[in-house]
Amino acid sequence: MNIESALIPVDEVVAAVDGFLAASPATRAWDVETAFDWSRADAGRLTEGQRSAVQFVTLIEDHLPGYFDVYHRYFPVDDTVDRDAFAHNRELYHFTVRWALEEDTHARALSRYQVASGMAERGALRAELAIEGQKPFDLPYRHPVQFFAYALVQEKATQMYYQHLREVVNDPVLGAVLARLSRDEARHFSFMADVVGRYLRVHGDAAVEPIREVIATFRMPLADTMRGYWRWALKIADVASYDHTEAYEHLVKVIDRAVDARSDRLDELVRFIDECRSLA
Question: Is residue 191 over pLDDT 90?
């Protein structure tokens, strides 16, 4: 499918982006340098498993250039698309650059914590992050709603893990970092949920199969490229309750809010999502 042919009208994107930016004014922004008292960061207050979790999520967040490149490639703002698609993509770009700034801040905050707390030396950490950072990232999708449905699940799952990890760590500095990250991920999820809802209202049943494909093939970022990902992911799940399929129920809520009455195809999609959650 040509992505351009399935885009929602530009006014729908404008409404979603304007809503996100209105809820995210510059006065609410935070920065790595001044938001925390880094001199008090102490990895000695963490268990081995908690330190491993911090290392893991740092690697995931630091791959931001790869994630941002996906939006640049599939929603380009150049002459490779027609004028209407360009207008759509240019409006979406207002979100993606803000999102990228915030996600890059997450990567910097987690890296700063590792160095300030004594977990890592800055040069060694930089070299470690480069190993994964140079690996390519892609999403195998052809319908635009899939990129937002994927991010909806990923952002909600990440938000929930940060909340759970914050509840068990004993270093107040790390707890404060995780609280900031969790709030940002919640806003990112809200944007993705808004956009998915708009696709469902505009395209109806035509959006069902693409969303189903996302759930059927879902993998968290770097699952297919990071060496030892699954073993490490299971380890950090034991540290703080984590199961990305917990985010699926939030997708069902988005579906219910988007439509007045479910069609047969939407009913089948919800049953499939519930089954995937039950199997997990």
Answer: yes
